[in-house]
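User: Some background: our group keeps a shared notebook of sequences we're curious about, and every so often someone picks one and asks for a predicted structure to add to the entry. Today it's my turn. The entry only has the sequence so far, pasted here. Could you supply the structure so I can complete it?
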Amino acid sequence: MTSSPKLKFVVENDTFLRLINVVLDPTASAERFDAFAHFCLHDLPDFRAWCDKVRAQAKNLYPSEVRLVDSQKELRASLPGAAIAVVEELTLGAEEIAAAGGSLRFVQKYGFTTRNIDHAACENAGAQMLTIRRRANISTAEQGLMLMLALARQVTQNANLISVGQLKAAGYQPTTYDRKHTPNGNWARIPNMVTLYQRQLGIVGLGEIGRELALRAAALGMSLVYSQRTRLPKAVERQYQATYVALDELLASSDFVSLHLPRSLATVNFIGARELSVIKPGSFLINVSQPNLVERKALRQAVESGRLGGYGLDTFYEEPGDASDPLIKFRNVIVTPHLGGSPRWNSLHDIEEVIVNLGSLLA
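Assistant: Of course. Here's the predicted structure to add to the notebook entry:
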């Protein structure tokens, strides 16, 4: 027989944050449990054992009441009596924190940027603010960097082409060099390869994933510019070695452009025919965010005309996609099947860290 709930959580209804509901709330539906077990199956064959392990590590949290909320209105209505609030995009301002009636002990941001949380209101209410550097975001940034490198070095076009016959069939003119006088590098005579070193990366949206990418690009010796609706504080710009510019300047001057914008009506077709006419000829466009950020027809025309040097996309316009889609017929287009945050363990470890840390703090 299940004991009474120990604590009340109010949790933003993010797809992965629902795991807090599954792990800690015994009233979570069997349908949701089964859906997550199916979702994790290829990386985690025994989802129930994982849930049991996390509960054992934070046994003082189970059972808890976990309320999932979709809006600011629902958040405010659910906060009275809550000990813990967990948010990703929803705002926890002074009004929301006051609505808890003094019960809030912890405010957990599902991420590390906290512009949507009122720090002073948390402190005044005695609620400790917690953050997490999400592994899934790091993995998505790695996916973006991989697409940049793969396009620049033409990896998918030329992998395993090691014979003269293969190379000629691919349209190249392999040769032999006189080793008494010259090196033997690129005897396949593959043209137009690019290095990332000293190239400019333009990041559209320097949020958490954009910042993870910036750290890695800077380590490779790239120069960084960024554009977004609101300029970041200068201290943050210095931390990520990124210079703020207008979108058109970013597009016109960057050798690589990486998109990191949220899904919304305002960002659909954010990059269209006008933006692709401004973009630097031969540049590489990377999208590990949302496929609909880039207008489909205009993208195809930009690749076909040679305006774009290449396009890297994680998550196609339809899932599953159509193998006959004309976009994937271009040799300088790489599309991966929504792999950015994978493996599942990235997000599972993120949620486990959140729960276990809260459990230790409440012990």
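Suggested note for the entry: The CA atoms of residues 94 and 120 lie 8 Å apart. The chain is about 35% helix and 15% strand.
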